[in-house]
Amino acid sequence: MKEQIQNLSEEFFDEIVSVRRHLHMNPELSFEEYETSKYIKQLLLSWKIDYKDDFENNGISVLIKGNSPDSRVLALRADFDALPIKEENDVIYKSRNEGVMHACGHDAHTSCLLGAIKILNATKDLWEGTIKCIFQPAEERLPGGAKQMIKDGVLENPSVQNIIAQHVLPDLEVGKVGFRPGIYMASTDEIYISVIGKGGHAAIPATYNNPLIASSELILSLDEFFSKQEDSIFALGYVNGQGSTNVIPNEVELMGTFRALNENFRKKSHIDINNIVNDIARKYNLKIDLEIRKGYPSLHNDKDFTKNNILKAKEYLGDDNVIDLPIRMTAEDFSYFANERPSCFYRLGTGNKEKGITHGLHTSKFDIDENSLKIGMGMMAFLAISS
């Protein structure tokens, strides 16, 4: 089966490259992926593969049934939304949608899953069980598409037992993949703070209560508190006071992010943030509005399931091409799937230093070595039938 899958990956490679380039040229933002969803469905129809699209926000699922289809059900997931970034690559498949770009590789994720579908469909007489393939919108924007697809029943009828997802990693050279059993990625919460004082003429201090001073202490207090906490990140990346050289503003707006690896610590930290905010408000006798917009939970890979996938990946690519991943403080809404079923979220190497393909995720010059598509589609198919 390994050799057959590798041969089919080679056979389907050119078509999947063209699919990836079409997706890359036509990116759409989260919750707006109407044309992307249509394109995926048109491809499936041209391949005579049935699908379901009765999911909110453009989601799609496909069932590929092998022998004894009721014996097991495993799911593969790919996301297909893009980011609000202007692409700066000089390539023939550059984004045609100004200010929108597949800068996180979701075009590659979807292309690899489509390639895996072709492989699985071509070999369905040779393996056991059912593979459910999930095309998910809106990974990049809260509340995320995974949560809604789960609510809409994507893990049922038939009920999924395990789920796998693959994500590109430009830091990893093409030809390699990476895994981490257990905790792998952080939760993510968005922080919105309004510090409301009283503005006035800067030369007449008695007439104002400067929210900039309170905001400065609040920023430093939060930074000092969380710098002492392990396995978490608190960072404010936006400050807007709208004053001037001689104008004290009425209000200062702050925005940031909070990341944590432990859900109990996350919950406690929300209380800590609120307490620090209240202390500063009392000290400066002003009002501070705090909103903690809860995002994705931390991502835990099932240890036994992931370890088994590591063994299968080594069988497919060789021991030297399967690496151990460090914990990342980035976040992923695949965590919602991982909270529902034993899961494995792994990384596909897409970098190539010799070709200059080294730019990071979420940057305007991000790209992939397209040879990774051949590895990605084959790896997904092989893990699906052998996990």
What oligomeric state best describes the polypeptide chains here? single chain
Shape descriptor reads elongated
State the separation between the terminal residues, measured CA to CA: 13 Å
User: Can you tell me the CATH class of the largest domain?
Assistant: Alpha Beta
Task: Please report the number of helical segments.
Answer: 9
- Number of individual domains: 2
What does this protein structure show overall?
This protein is an alpha/beta fold and 387 residues long. The protein has two domains: 2-185 and 298-386, Zn peptidases (Aminopeptidase, 3-Layer(aba) Sandwich); 187-294, Alpha-Beta Plaits. Helix content is 36%, strand content 25%. It has a seven-stranded mixed beta sheet with strand order 1-3-2-4-15-5-14, with helices on both faces. Strands 9-11-7-12 form a four-stranded antiparallel beta sheet, covered by helices on one side. Strands 6-13 form a two-stranded antiparallel ribbon. Helix 3 (106-122) links the parallel strand 2 and strand 3. Helix 1 runs antiparallel to helix 3 and helix 1 crosses helix 9. It is elongated and about 80 Å long. The two termini are 13 Å apart. The model has no long low-confidence stretch (mean pLDDT 97).
